[in-house]
Amino acid sequence: MIIQHCVRRITIGNTLSMSVRRYAGGARTPVLCIPGLTRNTSDFDDLAPKIAATGRDVITVSLRGRGRSDWDTDYLNYHPETYRDDVLTVLDELGVPSAIFVGTSLGGIVTMATHASSPERVKAAVLNDIGPELAPEGIARIAGYVGAGAGAGPAASLEEAAARIRAINEVAFPDASDAEWLVFARRTFHETATGEWVLDYDPNIARALMELGPAPDLWPAFESLKAISTLVLRGGLSDLLSPEIVGKMRAIHSAFDYVEVPRIGHAPMMTEPVAWAALDKFLMGID
To answer: Please, are residues 59 and 22 in contact by the beta-carbon 8 Å criterion?
Structure first.
């Protein structure tokens, strides 16, 4: 089955434009997919058509400073509350009153923040390898590669880009093949007019992360999700969402659905058989 999609640019904050893809799937509540800290819409290239085939439109976004979205000249705007406002603008522009939010890492933080401020816009929530507390090991690793990656300079070829991204992420994807690392690189880098490959995000995201921290206090926002259906996915090798944090989440919100994806770290792509089975079942329970 071929799922059609279109690409749009939506104005955010009056001056910037945000790259958005919409996959036509059907009349059921649409799904909004929000990627992680340095990632973009391409992370959902495989997942979005699978969801759309179940009868829902799927909207995927590149947050400001990533992918084909504009970079912000004020790097302090690279913050979850700004992203929350941006995704609400996207939904408004597309005429979507509410959506099922699927958020990977930072995208899950944006999901929690959105529900806390505008609960009527979030019909249900999927938190992919993220919770209201971040394990320090994961924070340190992410801060290290974002800063180092920003200053590493361009790669001479896609193969070199794949080797770089593999060195950073192989701990999270120990079973990935050479071909899969090339796909990973294409989704993380883009080719310049001179044939070099550069990371597909604004290096100033690293500055914002260092100065502003990864997130505000998210426990109240997470607790607010008790009002809606929630699925939490955890990579079995994750260093950002630990079993201890999941236990603390259970203590204040005992009803969320939960699944671990074996042999995957931060973060599952959600097309893994275990992850997709859980996500498909979860979505089937929502109009």
So the answer is: yes
Beta strands at 99-104 and 5-12: parallel, antiparallel or unpaired: unpaired
In the chain, % helix, strand, coil (3-state, to 5) comes to 40, 25, 35
End-to-end, the C-alpha distance of the chain in Å comes to 22
Q: In this structure, is the dihedral angle defined by the CA atoms of residues 232, 236, 238 and 242, taken in order, positive or negative? A: positive
The 3-class SS string of 90-134 reads HHHHHCCCCEEEEEECHHHHHHHHHHHHCHHHEEEEEEECCCCCC
Reference 123, options 36, 56, 64; nearest CA is: 56
Q: Give the sign of the dihedral formed by CA 256, CA 262, CA 265, CA 271.
A: negative
Task: Give the domain 5-135+215-284 fold.
Answer: Rossmann fold (3.40.50)
Structure tokens at 201: 């995000």
Residue 220 sits at φ, ψ, to 5 deg, of -60, -40
Angle between helix 136-150 and helix 204-212 axes, rounded to 10 deg: 150
Give the containing element (helix H, strand E) for 260. Answer: strand 257-261
Structure token pair of residue 64: 């400001």
- As to burial, measured by CB atoms within 10 angstroms (0-12 exposed, 13-18 middle, 19+ buried), residue 219 is middle
Tens digits of per-residue pLDDT, 4-23?
688 899 999 889 999 999 99
**Model's pTM, two decimal places?**
0.96
- The H or E element spanning position 70 is none
Mind listing the pLDDT tens digit for each residue in 180-230?
999 999 999 999 999 999 999 999 999 999 898 877 899 999 999 999 999
The amino acid that residue 154 corresponds to is P
Q: How far apart are CA 227 and CA 224, in angstroms?
A: 6
Matching residue, tokens 């944090």: 245
Are the CB atoms for 49 and 77 separated by under 8 Å? no
Using DSSP's 3-state secondary structure scheme, residue 274 falls into: helix
